[in-house]
Design goal:
This protein is α/β, with parallel strands linked by helices. It is 48% helix and 14% strand.
C-alpha cells in the first residue's frame, strides 16, 4: 500500500528548502532522543513504539469485548472521558462513519456518544433523557477516577444504568479504562467487577488513541482496529530514527513548522475539505497545543472546515495579520460518486459543470484556495491521504504524534507534560469549596 505523503512546495516562497534542511541534524537527533527515551518527559514515551508492541492478545480481547457488547443489541455506547480520553476515538469514528449514521440508526453497531467532556447541565440532561429509551452501555476512561468532568458524568450515568437494568446487569455494561493499580476508578472497578483495560503509566492522554482508550470505542463502533494499528505500525517504520531526513516526513514536517515559526508564523491552521475530518483536527489541536504551548513558546493550533469556513474565516486568512500558515489534509479518493446533472434552464449557471464529479469541484476549490492563500502570504503545507480508511488514519495519527515529539524537542520544551492545565482546576475547586482547598477558597473569594 502507498503511504500518506507530505508536500512542502508551497512554503518555499516563505522559507527556503535550505532553511528547512538546516534543521536536519537536530530533527534527526530529537527523533533518536524519542526512541532512546533520553529527552525531556522520557517517562511518558510509551507511545513511541506502541504500534509495533501491541499484542495479538490485546487486539483479540478488544474485539471480544466489542462483540460481546454488540450482542446485547446496543443502540448507544457512551464514552465518558475528557481530552485525549475522547478526542482520539471521536476523531477516528467520525472520519469513518456515514455522515448521517445517527439519524439513519441501523444499529448494526451502536452509535458512540460522549459524556464527561464538558460540565453542561443541559447536555447531561438531554443525554440521559435520550438513553432512557435506548439500549446502552458505557466506558469510563480516567487514570485517577477523580477528574471532575468524567467523574461527575459517570456518577450520573452509573446510577441510570443501575436503575434501568439492575446492579448486576449494569456491571456487565460498564467498561473501566484506568490505571492498573492505583486510583479511585481502579478501586471501584475491582469492587464492582467491571471489565477493565489498563491505561499505560508511560502514555499521556493525548497520545493514547492507539491504546484501549481509543481502540475500545472504535471497535464497538464497528471499525477495524487491526487495520488502524497496522497503519500506525507502518508509519512507525517510515518515520524511524534510522530513516534519513530526506525520506522522513515527520522530521520534515517538524522542521518546516519550526522554520516557519522562526519567521513569525505563529498560528498553524489545520484545513480540511472533508467534514468527516473536523474532529481529527480537534484531536490534533489538543496534541500540538498541549504539547508545545508552554514556557511562553509554541505555535498556536487552529482549524477550519473548507469550503464552509471560506465564507467566514476565509477573509481573515486571505488578508488578516500575516502570522498564519496552513496544513491541509487532502483526501485523494472519496468513497462515493455524485455527478452534477444538466439543467435545461441553467438559471444557476452551473451547466458548465454538468457531468463532473462533485469531488472534482471540491479538489479545484482546494487547489484554488491554496494558490490564493499563498499569494496572500500564507504558507501552505499539504498532507495527502490516499483514502479515509482505518489504515491511513493509523498512519496519520502516528505521523502527527512522532512529528509533535520531534517538534517539541526542537522547540526545547517538554512535549509530554501539561502544567498549565492545572490552573483552572485549582480555581474551580477553590470556588466550589472542595475540602482541602480552604486557603485557596479564602484567597480567591477575596479577589471577587
Amino acid at each position: 500500500m502507498t503511504n500518506i505523503s507530505l508536500h512542502l512546495e508551497k512554503v518555499y516562497d516563505f522559507v527556503s528548502n535550505d532553511e528547512i534542511v538546516a534543521y536536519k541534524k537536530t530533527a534527526e537527533q530529537q527523533n533518536v532522543a524519542l526512541r532512546e527515551k533520553t529527552g525531556k518527559g522520557s517517562d511518558f514515551l510509551g507511545w513511541v513504539d506502541l504500534p509495533s508492541s501491541i499484542s495479538e492478545a490485546t487486539l483479540d480481547e478488544i474485539e471480544k469485548v466489542a462483540l460481546k457488547l454488540q450482542s446485547k443489541h446496543l443502540e448507544v455506547f457512551v464514552v465518558i472521558g475528557i481530552g485525549g480520553s475522547y478526542l482520539g476515538s471521536k476523531a477516528v469514528i467520525d472520519a469513518l462513519s456515514d455522515s448521517f449514521s445517527q439519524i439513519k440508526g441501523s444499529f448494526e453497531s451502536p452509535i458512540v456518544l460522549f459524556a464527561g467532556q464538558n460540565i453542561s447541565e443541559d447536555y447531561l440532561f438531554e443525554l440521559r433523557d435520550l438513553l432512557d429509551s435506548k439500549e446502552w452501555a458505557c466506558a469510563i476512561i480516567s487514570k485517577s477516577g477523580t477528574t471532575t468532568e468524567p467523574a461527575l458524568a459517570f456518577r450520573l450515568l452509573k446510577q441510570d444504568l443501575e436503575e434501568k437494568y439492575g446492579v448486576e446487569e449494569a456491571r456487565k455494561r460498564i467498561i473501566a479504562i484506568t490505571d492498573a493499580e492505583r486510583g479511585a476508578l481502579c478501586t471501584l472497578a475491582k469492587e464492582e467487577g467491571y471489565k477493565t483495560f489498563v491505561i499505560p503509566d508511560d502514555i499521556g492522554g493525548r497520545y493514547s488513541v492507539l491504546t484501549p482508550v481509543g481502540l475500545i470505542a472504535i471497535a464497538i463502533a464497528g471499525f477495524n482496529v487491526r487495520e488502524l494499528v497496522s497503519g500506525a505500525k507502518s508509519m512507525e517504520v517510515a518515520c524511524g530514527a534510522d530513516v534519513p531526513f530526506e525520506e522522513n516526513i515527520a522530521a520534515q514536517y517538524a522542521a518546516a513548522r519550526n522554520a516557519l515559526y522562526k519567521t513569525g508564523k505563529k498560528v498553524e491552521i489545520m484545513v480540511n475539505f472533508n467534514p468527516k475530518l473536523h474532529f481529527f483536527a480537534e484531536w490534533w489541536k489538543q496534541l500540538y497545543g498541549e504539547s508545545e504551548g508552554k514556557e511562553s513558546k509554541g505555535i498556536f493550533p487552529a482549524s477550519v472546515d473548507f469550503s464552509s469556513d471560506l465564507h467566514s474565516m476565509g477573509q481573515y486568512i486571505q488578508e488578516g495579520e500575516r502570522i498564519l500558515f496552513e496544513t491541509v489534509l487532502s483526501v485523494e479518493n472519496v468513497d462515493n460518486e455524485v455527478l452534477v446533472p444538466e439543467d435545461k434552464a441553467d438559471l444557476d449557471k452551473l451547466n458548465f459543470l454538468a457531468g463532473k464529479r462533485v469531488d472534482y469541484i471540491n479538489k479545484m476549490a482546494e487547489l484554488g484556495t491554496s494558490i490564493a492563500h499563498v499569494d496572500g502570504g500564507v504558507p501552505n503545507i499539504r498532507i495527502n491521504i490516499p483514502q479515509l480508511n482505518e489504515y491511513y488514519l493509523g498512519q496519520l495519527i502516528y505521523f502527527f504524534e512522532i512529528a509533535c515529539g520531534i517538534s517539541g524537542y526542537i522547540l526545547n520544551v517538554n512535549p509530554f507534560d501539561q502544567p498549565g492545565v492545572e490552573a483552572y482546576k485549582k480555581n474551580m475547586f477553590a470556588l466550589l469549596e472542595k475540602p482541602g482547598f480552604e486557603k485557596e477558597t479564602a484567597a480567591i473569594k477575596a479577589r471577587l
